[in-house]
Inverse folding.
């Protein structure tokens, strides 16, 4: 099978490419000529140079492709709505158009559980309604996902949507590196009790689900939530990191309303001064730290045979090992 992977120089995309190569499949990565392709070159990935916002380069890359894995996206917290829409929605449309013309066998769209809303979740299923929040990334992910499903309904394009929670593991430079840094510097505090459930998923488990989604006939036209299904709370995650990294346990807590108050003030100042980086506290970070993020993955298990084989605890150990061996060598999405 010939596979096209977008976002292959990023965290999730690089793992998709690596898994496919290990299974003996051909992988073509759509990359810019300025991208860092050292890792991909080392595992024999082929390159199609271009950009998802350049339709001609997308059409050229799509020739002879059987399966598309679309993981490229602007996922930063501090992006404009215009830029997020250009990349996340218009870029996705270009890929869908080219995939339809090339008559690909499957188009797998890597979305996010964030499309179901920045609120408390208690077993929320994949068919729950979308919930826009005003966040550029979340809202454009909703628009992109709706577009993907429209191409299935209108044109019969065989699509599948996979929605991970907070992804962690080797080659990530966000979730666990940032959290462990704060804990190591004794700068971490819980927002609320810390008893809220988390929707984390280890990268190898997510990759299992993504590859299964591309190969299952049941998955055509379907949407799947993907987490580690551990029932782990934020407090448990933090204490696991503390134990593995040999840090001191954090004991400070801040009320949720106070966190949002500080967040609103800092965000307002950052917007006013046109800061290039987000403030220390953002709504996305408060979401992870305080909201109950429990999602139903029964459909994922039933249709895809999904069974998280790497626990969060083991995933944390593997992540720490990678971080120690590759200090300074991170991959951006």
């Amino acid at each position: 099978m010939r596979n096209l992977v977008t976002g292959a120089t990023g965290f999730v995309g690089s793992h998709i490419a690596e898994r496919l190569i290990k299974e003996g499949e051909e992988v073509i990565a759509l990359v810019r000529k300025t991208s860092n392709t050292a890792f991909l070159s080392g595992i024999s990935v082929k390159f199609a140079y271009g950009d998802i916002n350049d339709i001609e380069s997308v059409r050229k890359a799509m020739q002879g492709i059987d399966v598309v894995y679309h993981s490229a996206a602007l996922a930063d917290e501090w992006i404009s709505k215009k830029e997020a829409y250009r990349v996340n929605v218009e870029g996705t449309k270009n890929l869908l158009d080219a995939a339809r013309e090339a008559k690909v066998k499957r188009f797998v769209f890597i979305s996010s559980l964030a499309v179901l809303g920045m609120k408390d979740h208690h077993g929320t299923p994949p068919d729950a309604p979308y919930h826009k929040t005003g966040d550029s990334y979340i809202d454009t992910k909703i628009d992109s996902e709706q577009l993907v499903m429209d191409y299935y309904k209108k044109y019969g394009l065989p699509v599948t949507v996979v929605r991970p929670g907070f992804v962690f593991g080797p080659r990530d430079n966000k979730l666990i590196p940032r959290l462990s840094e704060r804990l190591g510097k004794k700068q971490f505090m819980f927002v609320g009790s810390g008893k809220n459930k988390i929707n984390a998923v280890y990268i190898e488990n997510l990759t299992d689900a993504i590859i299964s989604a591309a190969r299952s006939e049941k998955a055509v036209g379907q949407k799947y939530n993907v987490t580690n299904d551990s029932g782990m709370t934020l407090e448990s995650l933090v204490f696991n990191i503390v134990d593995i990294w040999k840090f001191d346990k954090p004991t400070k807590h801040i009320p949720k309303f106070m966190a949002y108050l500080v967040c609103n003030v800092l965000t307002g100042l950052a917007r006013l001064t046109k800061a290039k980086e987000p403030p220390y506290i953002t709504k996305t970070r408060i979401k992870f730290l305080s909201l109950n993020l429990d999602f139903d993955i029964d459909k994922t298990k039933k249709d895809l045979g999904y069974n998280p084989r790497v626990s969060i605890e083991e995933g944390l150990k593997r992540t720490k090992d990678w971080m120690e061996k590759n200090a300074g060598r991170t991959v951006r999405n």
Q: What stands out?
A: The radius of gyration is 19 Å. The chain has twelve helices and 13 strands.
